[in-house]
Write a structure and sequence with these properties.
The chain is an alpha+beta fold. It has 15 helices and 16 strands.
Length: 444
């Protein structure tokens, strides 16, 4: 057996998790300020949820889903994208009955079988937000502003919002016909994926990453020239709302998104810091998705943001994120003249640690039966701000940064009572230690 995680599914180790927690906390706080509430959907869905939503000819449906049969013979798939499960939950639980719009957000793992590359993994974590129930341009602008402000809140500035409209069922068929007419003479020049998409998903021809196909796409007909009056008015409304909020953007005919459920607004934010795969988030409007899933028609708009990419961009931009905070106090114990006395000191150390934690401090105590010197080295390794040393005849609090030992004003009586785990003695020592630690924090 090879002891390693599956390819493209990295561990997030201690030391890294603090960066994740910081980013997630900032995103949750911003979503709260926008009035969005968290939703948590299962990590698996019935495969049909994704097959109906993402569409024929998409990479997700054809080759990227993790799909399996359960013991009942039902086809299930790991969550391949975030929006369809949210819409499924809205329909299943009649969340629209409480009034629309429903503003929802999620932070969850997404699974795609794809070649791992910079900032893109087979299991990645996505922050997404959805506005369910509003067909108005204001909803598009609001959810896009949430995404842009989220990146700004984290300190990113080198980002660019690219915006497009992919029309709707009224105007898109005429555009797809023009697109096929344009590409027909060039079919032999296209990559294998694009030749396959020509019939089933021609919009994806504009999204190919191969350089030769990208050059061909630049001269292709533009959806802007084929929009119906309603789609054009909607697109202009989204732009007007973004301008009013001071959010800069650029029109990009190549933004078509990879899923069939998108209508009208399509958007991506790019950063030049993540190599070829440089989209930090993507999203758009999906007014037909609820009906595709078999429910009543409910309009919606949203986005998904890969947090691995965000963290990578933050690192490359030199934006420091907090690491794991060191413990406030490490409690070390010396040895008594007999094993019973040493055991009482160890018990007192853990009882005292429990009191201090209850008062809001972070505290570690030895659980390895190490010597006092080894415990002091451990206190240094974990970066403890203070070390409280319990010995038979003294109880100093050492400030690790300076090596200074602080007198807690406790006498032999308290030490003896502490060794007996006397509740009043524990409380007196805990109060003395906490007062010193908090005074040090105030000075800092």
């Amino acid at each position: 057996m090879e002891i390693r995680a599956p390819r493209g599914m990295p561990d997030v180790l201690p030391g890294e998790t603090a960066r994740w927690q910081h980013v997630e906390a900032r995103l949750r706080d911003l979503a709260r300020r926008y009035g969005y509430r968290e939703i948590r959907t299962p990590v698996v869905e019935h495969t049909e949820v994704f097959q109906r939503s993402v569409g024929e000819g998409t990479d997700i449906a054809e080759k990227e889903m993790y799909t399996f049969l359960d013991r009942g013979g039902r086809s299930l798939s790991l969550r391949a994208e975030g929006t369809a499960p949210v819409v499924r939950a809205v329909l299943e639980h009649n969340l629209d009955a409480a009034g629309l719009p429903a503003r929802l957000y999620y932070i969850c793992p997404i699974f795609r079988y794809d070649r791992p590359q910079a900032g893109r993994y087979r299991q990645h974590t996505q922050f997404g937000a959805e506005v369910i129930g509003s067909p108005e341009p204001a909803a598009d602008a609001e959810v896009l502003s949430l995404a842009v402000r989220a990146l700004e809140t984290l300190g990113l500035r080198d980002v660019a919002l690219h915006l497009n409209s992919v029309g709707d069922d009224v105007c898109r068929p005429r555009y797809l016909e023009a697109l096929r007419d344009y590409y027909s003479p060039h079919l032999e020049e296209l990559c294998e994926d694009c030749r396959r998409r020509f019939d089933v998903a021609p919009l994806r021809l504009l999204d190919c990453k191969r350089e030769r196909d990208r050059r061909l796409a630049q001269a292709a007909p533009k959806m802007q020239d084929y929009l119906c009056d309603a789609c054009r008015a909607h697109f202009e409304g989204v732009q007007a709302q973004l301008r009013a909020m001071g959010i800069t953007y650029q029109i990009d005919p190549g933004i078509v998104r990879g899923l069939d459920y998108y209508t009208r607004t399509a958007a991506e934010v790019f950063s030049g810091k993540v190599g070829a795969q440089n989209a930090v988030f993507g999203g758009g409007r999906y007014d037909g998705l609820a009906a595709q899933l078999g429910g009543k028609p409910i309009p919606g708009v949203g986005f998904g943001m890969g947090l691995e990419r965000v963290l990578q961009v933050l690192e490359q931009e030199g934006i420091a994120l907090p690491g794991d905070p060191p413990p406030d106090v490490f409690i070390a114990t010396g040895r008594s003249e007999d094993s019973a006395g040493t055991g009482r000191l160890r018990a007192a150390a853990h009882a005292l640690a429990d009191r201090l934690r209850g008062g809001g401090l972070s505290v570690e105590a030895d659980v390895m039966d190490r010597s006092l010197n080894a415990q002091m080295r451990q206190a240094n390794r974990v970066g403890a701000v203070y070390t409280l040393i319990l010995e038979r005849d003294r109880l100093p609090l050492r400030e690790m940064g300076t090596g200074q030992e602080l007198d807690l004003g406790l006498g032999p009586a308290e030490l003896e009572a502490l060794g007996r785990a006397d509740a009043r003695a524990l409380e007196r020592v805990a109060q003395a230690v906490a007062a010193r630690v908090r005074a040090g924090k105030e000075r800092a």
